[in-house]
Amino acid sequence: MKIDNVTLAFKNKIVLRNVDLEIKKWEFVFFIGYSGEGKTSLIRSLIGDFAPERGDIVLDSGAYLYKNMSEKVLLTYRKNIGVIFQDYKLLESKSVYENVAFAMEVCGYRDPYIRKKVPEALEQVGLLIKKDTFVYELSGWEKQRVSIARALVHSPDIIIGDEPTWNLDPHTAHEIMEIFEDLNKDGKTVIIATHDKNIVDSFRKRVVTFKDKEVQSDVEKGKYSLKL
Ligand SMILES: Nc1ncnc2c1ncn2[C@@H]1O[C@H](COP(=O)(O)OP(=O)(O)O)[C@@H](O)[C@H]1O
Ligand SMILES: [Mg+2]
User: Is the confidence at residue 88, as pLDDT, over 90?
Assistant: First the structure.
């Protein structure tokens, strides 16, 4: 996809200015920057949830995300993106299985397909053995695995994580990132917004740094260069 000279704003408050980025299908990209630099807003605009004030988001198909896109094409695009939020957005009083199945039910998938797909997605994140556990009984990193499984049920080509490891210890954070790395090796585009210096420095992927409402740097095999 291409982020073409995008400016994001809430009312008249500019959040990000003139962002130009091209993200290729096979890439793994970190978005880093202090809180409030607009990472979440940019992610929201990439998933079709927040129209830019100026500029365009151009999909690989050549379609413009916010320009004359039919509801149907937008829905297809959204299903092709798996988003992992920092606060999981899980249903605490339901089981692991039910959480993933529910995400499929609301999208209108049929039961036999749900019964086949949910265990597959749970297996992919190593959580099939906990399928009947209630979410409130899980640890943070297990919850994050459930939310990744839920993001995988549409077999998306693009995976976006918004600070998916923010509350995890370094070891489990690393394990979660290895899941994303495997998904990238399977050919999925991965975009991860993060503050986690350890993670960024140990995975050595493309690093886009947002600073002062702009892209400050964009480095292949980069490191976390913001001073904390
Ligand atoms: N719904 C909203 N309405 C108004 N301002 C918002 C809204 N969401 C975020 N902002 C503002 O936009 C800026 C960027 O926020 P955000 O995209 O969440 O940054 P980050 O994810 O990098 O911490 C912040 O100043 C934030 O207060
Ligand atoms: Mg954020």
Answer: no
Q: What is the mean pLDDT of residues 39-51?
A: 96
Q: Which of 41, 162, 166, 192 to mutate to test the pocket of ligand 1 (most atoms within 8 A of CB)?
A: 41
CA distances from 19 to 12, 23, 95, 118, 210 (A): 17, 12, 41, 37, 9
The DSSP string of the chain is -EEEEEEEEETTEEEEEEEEEE--TT-EEEEE--TTSSHHHHHHHHTTSS--SEEEEE-TTS-BTTSS--HHHHHHHHHTEEEE-TT----TTSBHHHHHHHHHHTTT--HHHHHHHHHHHHHHTT-GGGTTSBGGGS-HHHHHHHHHHHHHTT--SEEEEESTTTTS-HHHHHHHHHHHHHHHHTT-EEEEE---HHHHHHH--EEEEEETTEEEEEETT-------
* pLDDT confidence tier of residue 132, bands split at 50, 70 and 90: very high
Tell me which ligand sits closest to the C-alpha of residue 163.
2
Which atom, in ligand 1's list, is nearest to the CA of 162? Answer: 21
Entry pTM: 0.95
Measured between its terminal Cα atoms, the distance across the chain in Å is 31
